[in-house]
Every structure is written in C-alpha cells, then in structure tokens.
C-alpha cells in the first residue's frame, strides 16, 4: 500500500549504487527490495515480527537458490544498535517508513529507535520519517478508531501537524524538506480488508482486550462506508514524509 511513498522518497534522494540504507522496522522487506532494485546496499532491522522478517529474508537473501541477491543485504532481528558493523562507509540513508500519528506512544517509540540508529549514520546522511496525513484526508484513520473503542485507555490518537518535526528535533536532526504522497488502500472485499488490517499488528491490543471476533466485527462495520458497489474496498489516504539530516 505504501509503494508510492517508497518510490517518491527514493526518487527524491536519488537512491542507487553507493547508497547504504538502514531500514528501521523493515517488516517484510518490500521497501528494502525496492532499494535493492536501484543498487543500494541494505541493512534491515525488525524487532516486532519474526514472521515478517522471515519473509524479508526470502525476498532479499535467496539462500539455496540459483539467483543471487542484486546487492549487499543484511537483515537483523533486534534493536537498531544491533545493525552496527565494522564495514565502512557508514549508512548514508536511514528510513523509518512505519507511519506515526495513529497509536499512542508511537512518536516516543520512533524517537528511541532513532537515538540508537543515528550514531550509525555518517555526517549529512538523510533520515526519512513518515506520518499519517490529516484525518480528513486519511480514510483509514477512521477505521483505526475501531481498535480504540475496544481499549481502555484508547491506543488510537489523531496525528499532529508537527509530529515528524518534533521527533526529528528530539533526535538532534536537521529538517531538510518534506512531501505528501497519496497511498490509497484497496482490497478485493471486506474480508480481505479485515485480514489486511489485522496483519499490520495495529489491532493486536484490541483483540487481547476483547476477542478476535469482536474486533473483526468492529472493523467490518468501520469499513462499510468505503465498500463500493462491486464489493471492493477503497480507502484514500495521504501520508507525509520528512527528510532530515544527521549533523
């Protein structure tokens, strides 16, 4: 769903051979795979989901296959500090593509992650932060509130205009431009949309607080306004990214 965002960032920063990418919260590795197709060297870090990291390994490290990786790639399960290595040069691009501005405490978690990652980047390296756009332009944020109704205290929070700048300031970074990218979420049907949204992990706390069936029901009801006549689900969204620099 965020492919247009990845493309916009990589095009703006001219990612290619010679770029050394540190991807924070790399998940299943799609953003890294796109950077690899441009010839960048990659290190991905994932702490929350071993299952997604396993998928990233299948995509980027084809062990036992005849095909060879297109570029240097390394995947690490753990904290950003675990991505430190003896090879040089240091990272020239740090990406944090998981959007903030949807869950309580997400800005603080990103700031802590950056505190460990920024020392691994060279002077002047770009650091890319991503946030949800204004709620009136992000249909999916209305669906995220379905999770909040099942939690006490609620985990969902509305995005703030200066979320990204505040995180950058806390990390000692210098803002160097921003942009907005349309990233609609499309699904074949409500069931597909529910499965897709549940796979993000954003609703895990809601499921633990009540039960999975109740969360499924809440999500299906929240998705109803975005279901088209042919049964497909289409949610327009806008995401904002900030490019900051390591001093």
UniProtKB/TrEMBL annotation:
Keywords: Methyltransferase, Transferase. It comes from the Bacteria. The keyword Methyltransferase applies. GO terms for molecular function: methyltransferase activity. The keyword Methyltransferase applies. Residues 62-83 are annotated as: Disordered. Residues 62-73 have a biased composition (Basic and acidic residues). SUPFAM superfamilies: S-adenosyl-L-methionine-dependent methyltransferases. One of its GO terms (biological process) is methylation. This is Methyltransferase type 11. It comes from Streptomyces longwoodensis.
